[in-house]
Predict the structure.
Amino acid sequence: MRGNCCASKAQLRGKGPDNQVDVPQVKRSPSSPHAAPRKRSAFVDLTNTKKVQNDICVKNNKPAKRTQTSKVVIKTNSNLTATKRLSSEEQCRKAVDQEDQVEKSTDSGVSPAKEQPAVQEQKIPEEFDVDKEQAGDCLMSPEYAKDIFDYLRQREEKFVLTDYMQTQPDLNGSMRGILIDWMVEVQENFELNHETLYLAVKLTDHYLSVTEVMRESLQLIGSTAMLIAAKFEERCPPSIDDFLYICDDAYNRQEFLVMERNILRGLHFDINIPVPYRFLRRYAKVAHASMETLTLARYVCELSLLELELVPERASRLASACLLLALITTRLGGWTAALRYHSGYALSDLGPLVRRLYAMLACPADENLRAVENKYSHKVFFEVAKIPLVHTETLEEALSEPDFTPC
């Protein structure tokens, strides 16, 4: 284990007394697998008002003084009435003065200046407005949904990768596939969010694109990337002790901390990378796809993480192609005008990538990497991995349909 780049399944699971595989159910917990549970301190006051006040006192060399509240002594009710009348009269005078200024500017031919909104609201056609059903739901932010995903599409241009394996003398695509297959198992054992897995793969690829590493450090890089992604995405991320346990103590705590700093520095601490899973859920909502169809698209998208050739693909385009292939497989239609509007991709833009994904499903690169297939063969995921592929003629017929004219 310590000499290999990735942990084998036997090392991760261990042998029982009857030479049977004993699978430890590793759960997310604040405690270490080897020690007693550790207490986590509750959140304290997150404000810094006391610190700012102390800094001001130190700067002025004066002790902090409590703000004295002004006291108003009202002798009689007549004084209070006079004060209220005076304030209302002043407000009336100000209103009259403003009206006079507007009238003077109108008489002179000068139109009064109108305040322009700081942000112009994007007008979405009525037939393409998929967020109108959630109007008023502040948690879903329907009025900003289109702008958010348009921003993510612009941001993903910053994280486009190339074939970095040419710059790694000690690595190859097969080693990367083994690592990603193991990371899928880690995500499933720790019961992490799918966004965590996608982000961890992105962090691994970006770090390998800028740093030359040896194969002995490959599993350490993948584990640390999963740790960083869990801190970014999870409410209760696993601890370093959990990753030490899942790596069979092949590395120590200090190595994890050093690698964590190296990855963050290599990515300039910019780890908010758009991932295909977010776009996939958005486009499935636009298509009104069922949960089974969405799960099938997720299976294709997660299987694509193993392919080194698909690393340069943009997250939004990959998500669009996965959903289109799922729609064709379940015979629920093709690429609609609403999907083109929200995704920005025409059918002709997705055709070559859909064919590449179809070939990936028909002929896997490595038959031994079955973590994703086994995961989506479960009833929880509707056994979508067992759904047969459509015939090639059906696929080509769906991809040859004319594109919708842009609105």
Notes: The longest helix spans residues 77-107.
